[in-house]
Every structure is written in structure tokens, then in C-alpha cells.
Specification:
- The complex is a heterodimer.
- Chain A is mostly helical.
- Chain A is built from 15 helices and no strands.
- The termini of chain A are far apart.
- By secondary structure, chain B is mainly alpha-helical.
- Chain B is built from 11 helices and 2 strands, in the order ααααββααααααα.
- In chain B, α1 packs antiparallel against α10.
- The chains are: A mainly alpha, B mainly alpha.
- At the A-B interface, α5, α11 and α13 of A face α3, α4, α9 and α11 of B.
Chain lengths: 303, 294
Amino acid sequence: MGWFEANEALVQLTLINMMLAASLQVTLNAGMLSLAPVAAWGVGGFIAANLAIDTQLALGPILLIVAVAVAAGAFLVALPILRLRGLAFAMATLAVLLIVGSLSVTNREWTGGSLGLYGIPVLTTTGALVVGVVAVALVLARIERREMGRRVEVLRLDEAAARTLGVAVDRIRLALFVLAATIAGVSGALSALAFNNFSSQNFGFDRAVTTLAMVVIGGTRSWLGAFLGAFLLTFSPYWFDQFDVWNKVAYGAMMIAVVGWFPDGLLGLLRSGIGRLRAAIDRGPGTGTGATTAVAAGAEARS
Amino acid sequence: MTQQALNAVVLGGIYTLFALGLSLAWGVLRILNLAHGAIATWGAITAWLLTKERVLPLWLLVVIVVLAMGTLNVVIDQLAFRRLRRQGTEQLETRVLLASVGVVTILLAWAEQVTKSDTYSLPAGIFSSRIYEVVGVRLKALDIVILVLSIGGMALLAHWIRNSRNGRALRAIACDPETASLMGINHEVLTPVTMFVSGGLAGMAGLLIALAFHVVHAYMGDPLMLKAIAIIILGGIGSVAGAVVGAYALAFGETAMVANDHASLRDVVAFAFVVLILLVKPTGLFGRQTVERQ
């Protein structure tokens, strides 16, 4: 048996975590610390699980239904919650996550209670997950580039300034909030359809914290950072031989270090490293204009 | 009925101690320390480790736990948060929150390691197990201890904030950190003091929970943390009166829900209430109105 067959579940989990991490990054990059996508992840998973068990629908229609339902739900939740800012906003999204978690334990027929649902038909393949991840990357890359990226950046730095510059602040916040929930909902649906079971244990406060760690460690400025963090944190137990305690201590320490010392995360470190390397190559031996090329290459790598 | 009310009063006392510590750091220093729950857990674990082989009197345990957890909180602040404060105020609250998530991860992993993810309880010998009958209500000696400690703690904290020189300085920082430091208030001294008091309160709450519910385990602080956030949002950030009212409201609400067979919906109601309060009056029932730059 090859490496891939032996570790397919781990690869699938990584792909699912990449999507979930990207959904937290989308809002965090606009200055909104939102845990609501984790709730959407759970709702999406339960909708998909029930559809797969009760109907003969194929993967495509199920994902479509999940996306529409979760987006509509996120829209309704967003209307009141987006009035809040900063920590109050973060706490309200935490409350949403906890309410959804509690309700999913209480509604036994629909969610299987605290045990969760088992025997969900496996409708996803690793290939489908890869397609999902690529689609997410394409959408987010489109948002990060050009005018939209600049708008989001101004919004993160100073909302009042963004308004005076004519940025449609409310519309962008709403759109990003709903987009994040939709991505997370689809990711949850894929998870339910990949692993044959789904329970409310899968999207508690714990999961929110781990996913947040992925985004922060990888880098909050870009979807690529979220992907990088999700990849590293999902795979690290495999590399470090399941040595659980030290793994967690390492995440914690990395998180503190990144927030305090490297605010752009590992992705930022990588990029500045590549920038310096390129500058060193461009400079060549003994030229006088090294400093300017270094700055130019650095700026290019950062943009 | 009276018995239920008494249980709610005792529970409210513990919630208050825990929430006050969180509220103090949040209101004065703008530190929403998610590690507060893990510090309560460690307060309980410290007591458990100390009493594993010998029986210590309760007062000594309280003193040790408060000092140890206060110190731990100061160390956490110096290692993880101090640098963030120095980097300026842009998104400070969110960045401190994220760093505290890192702290939680470490403290919990360590707690799992020490307790091997098992549940323990503190030995019965450290406090009197006498039961008093007062007007038809059964009052355990432990209930009295909890009430005395929580009400004493509240009174002491309120007195400290209201009447002492340091307390006045704290209120000044909470109002306007920049002007306060122009008036000669030294953050470098007051921040550790505040974090020490906050950590001590968390440790004491953890110890009392361990005594009242006979449990010591690695995750005991998590539900406490979520409740405290609800309490503070309900009462208003940084307000002692608000934390007390919020804690008792939650304790009575929970007890009533459990008494009426709605135990599973307990948390849903609490957090739905939080969302409602945030929407109607984001500063909480007792919070100050803040003026924001437009």
C-alpha cells in the first residue's frame, strides 16, 4: 500500500481544514474576528448528512443546497450582528457558535444528539476535495487582488477612513461575512460526506480555537497563509509521531510568537525570506546599487 | 424552592469571583484574557496536587492558590501581552485575544499532561462537612465558606477600586490611558498589580468550584469562561456592580431552568440573551457610554 492510500483520511482532513481556515481568514483580513464560520461548518455538515441519508441526491446538488441554505442563514444572522464592532462583534459570533452547538446537541432526530450521525453515505473523493480547495483559492485570490483587495485593506486599517474614501463598508462586510459562512458550510458538508460520521463535537469552541491558530500562524493577510497554517497544523501530529502535549504547546508558543513578533505569520516570513534571497541574487558580486534592488525586490515580494 | 434559591446564591458567588477578575483586566487594561478559565483550572489543579499526600487547611490552600495564580497571570502578561501593548493600539484588543488563545493552548496541554485527562476530587478532610439547618434550609459548611469568600472578595475589590489610590489610578486608566499616563500614572506598575488580582480571583474561583462540585479536571475552566463572558457582556465591561448582577442573574436563571427540566436549553438561553443585550445596549446594563470617533 502506498503512502497516499495509508494516509488518505489525513489528506482529506487537511483539505477540509484548509477551506475552513480560509473562511476565518476572509473576515479576519477585513478586521472582523468572526467565529461564525465554524457554526456554519456544523450546519452545513448536518444538512449534507441528512440529505445524503434521506435522499438519493448526488454530491453536486447537495453542495448547492448547503451553500444556498448556509448563505441565507448567514445573511439573516449578519443583519443584526454586523452592527457590532471589535470585541463585541467577536463575542457575538462566539455566542452564535455556542447557540448552534447547544441546539445541535438538543435536536436529536436531526443531529443524533451528542453522539452525532453515523453511516452517512460517502459521496466525496479526494479529487472532489481538491477541486473545492482550488475553487476557494480562485475566489479568494480574485478578492485579494486589485481594487477589492485595497478596499478590504483600508477597511481593516480604519473603517472611518474607508467610508470617507467611498468604500461601501457595510456592503463589503456583509458580503465577506456571507462568503465566509458559505465556504465553511460547503467545507462542513464535504467533511460529513467524506468521513461517514458527523457530530456536534466536531465544531465546538475547541475547533474554533484550533482553526484560529491555523490562520494566525500561517498568516492572516492572505488565503495562502490560511492554507499553509491548516496544512502545517493538521499534518504536524503525523510528523511528530502523535506526541500530543508537545504539539499543542508548540502551537500555543507559535501563536504567541506570531502575534507579537511576526504579525504576517509564516507566510510573511517566507515571503520576506524569498524577497531577500532574490535581492541577493540580483545584486550579484560587487555592484553598488544593491540596496535599491533589495528594496524593490522586497516590495515586489510583499505585494 | 428555598433550597434551590440557596444553591443559586452559592453558584452566583463563584461566578462573581471568576467574572470580576476577567472584567477587571478587560475593563482596565483592555485585555480579554481567554486564559482566565485555564487559570481557574490550574487553581484547582494546584490545590489537588498540594493535597494529594497531605491534608492542608482550607485557608492555607486559598492563600497559596491565590498567590500562585496571581503570579502565573503576571508572568503570562509579561511574556505574551506586554509586547503587544508596546506596539501601539491598532487592533490591540483582537491581537491580545489571539495571543491569549495561544496561552490557553499551552496551559490546557499542560493540565492534560498533569491530570492525564482524568477527573479527581479534593480530599474531604480539608474542610468541615457539618450541615446546619437554618429555617428549613440545609446549609453545608462549604456553602458558608463560599459565600463568605465570594462576598468578602467582592467587597474588598469594590473598596479597593473605589477608595484606594491605586483603585483611582485604575479607573483613570480605564477612562483614558493616555491622559492617565500624562498625569503620572505608571502602567508598568499597575498592569502587573491588576493582572495579579485578576489571576488570584480566577484561582480562588477554580478552587471553590473544585470544592463545591467535587471535580478537578483539565477542562473545568471552559464552561466557566463562556459563562463569564456572558456575565460581563450582560453587566457591562469593567463594572463591579454589573458583574455581580450579571453573575446572580445567570446563576438564578440556570438554576430555574434546571429545576424546571430544561437543563439542555440552559446555555442556549444564556447566549441568546447575550446577543440580545449586545444588540440593544452594547455597553451592558451597567456599562459606561463611550464616545467613538466618527
